[in-house]
Design goal:
The protein is an alpha/beta fold. The protein has one domain (2-162): Aconitase, domain 4 (Alpha-Beta Barrel), CATH 3.20.19.10. The protein contains 8 helices and 7 strands. Helix 4 links the parallel strand 2 and strand 3. Helix 7 (142-149) crosses helix 8. It is globular and about 45 Å long.
Length: 164
Amino acid sequence: MATGTVFKYGDNVDTDVIIPARYLNAPSPAELAKHCMEDIDAAYASSVKPGDIIVGGWNFGCGSSREHAPMAIQASGAACVIAASFARIFYRNAINIGFPILECPEAAAGIQNGDKVTVDFAAGLITDETTGASFQAAGFPAFINSIIDNGGLLPYLKARQKGE
């Protein structure tokens, strides 16, 4: 469960906007977070609070296959990204690092910048606390929930190997 303020962006937010290429040699996720979204929203990195939520339009995370993009968002403190759709490689990279993302075109269209939103990840329920509107995102299969709950693909595989 997460509750936070929304940072809303449009369609085709690409990985070069999420984390500009000039920062890809940053030594840590925390350093990446300082530059997250800076080419589309210079105030994002200094304004985002733990638990805040990014809402995007169609094809969020398009562009290169760098895993730095979801890592920068996660390290910035955002609890999740809700979008109308995700580029497939971004989707997979987010899951691989244990960062929850939800596809819900209705929520992406209905939620506005600055709204307070609550997300129930288990149920896929998105509630705009500002307007009272609720949206149903498709839930993840159990194994993807396990990957997210374990903090990413590698911790998930280690837990499975140990029989946890």
